[in-house]
Design goal:
Layout lengths: L2 H8 L7 H13 L7 H12 L5 E4 L2 E4 L4 H22 L15 H18 L9 H9 L3 H22 L1 H17 L14 H39 L1
Antiparallel strand pairs: 1-2
Length: about 240
């Protein structure tokens, strides 16, 4: 990550408040002795929840586009740095660079669920979406999961029914992922999902979404390369 890139993470014009620039410089120079904290995390998360570049104006209004993975890399790197500085101060295990399927933080698991539901909706729609689940529910789900996810799960039933008819293999794979993630949540008396996420929890939610997205894209790319290699070998043998 370069300093100018971090400035654009914090401010749309690349001109964050001076105290934020100083905090980043001190963290870069003095390392863990000058940890980033909740203030920096709050700014980054607010930018992630309201990314101006996520929507594309087109004829007839806005068409929803998924959060581009490349554009998320630097913001999520800063989120992870903030979270790990906070965790270090509490003696809590630090977050890895990639998907940690053994991580039991409910907020992290909920972030992964957010991606899987987004993936489900897009898989069931051949046409561009005017408004995606991510557009409608990311902000709410990352703050009040217990309010957002029952609504998201209800919408998902329609998408699963459509995939069962049109793309059963894809439907089975996504449903398997959803069931696996739900099994990792530990419901309380209040319900299946956390009622409210702290600022730290919101950061873990964002990391869960990003890590699951990156992992899923890498898995799909690997499968595609494997299939292409198999097809090429079959052609050469024939």
């Amino acid at each position: 990550m370069r300093f100018w890139q971090l400035n654009y993470v914090l401010d749309r014009k690349g001109e964050p408040p001076v105290h934020h620039e100083i905090a980043l410089l001190r963290r870069a120079i003095e390392g863990k002795a000058q940890p980033l904290g909740y203030s920096m995390l709050s700014v980054v998360l607010n930018r992630i929840r309201h990314p101006e570049e996520n929507s594309n104006p087109k004829a007839g209004g806005k068409k929803s586009e998924p959060m581009p993975l490349a554009r998320l890399r630097i913001p999520m790197g800063l989120v992870r740095l903030c979270i790990n500085d906070i965790h270090r101060s509490k003696g809590v295990t630090e977050m890895s660079e990639g998907l940690d399927q053994s991580c039991a933080f409910p907020a992290y698991i909920c972030g992964q669920l957010m991606y899987e539901y987004e993936n489900l909706q897009r898989a069931s729609n051949d046409n561009e979406l005017n408004v995606s689940i991510l557009d409608r529910y990311y902000s709410l789900a990352s703050t009040y999961p217990a309010l957002a996810f029952p609504k998201i799960a209800e919408l998902a039933k329609t998408h699963l029914r459509k995939l069962r008819r049109d793309r059963p293999g894809t439907r089975n794979a996504i449903e398997r992922n959803l069931l696996e993630l739900h099994s990792k949540l530990q419901p309380s008396a209040a319900g299946a999902y956390p009622a409210k996420l702290s600022l730290e929890g919101q950061g873990l939610f964002a990391l869960g979404y990003y890590h699951r997205k990156a992992w899923s894209i890498a898995q799909a790319s690997s499968r595609k390369q494997s299939n292409e290699s198999t097809d090429q070998n079959d052609t050469e043998e024939n």
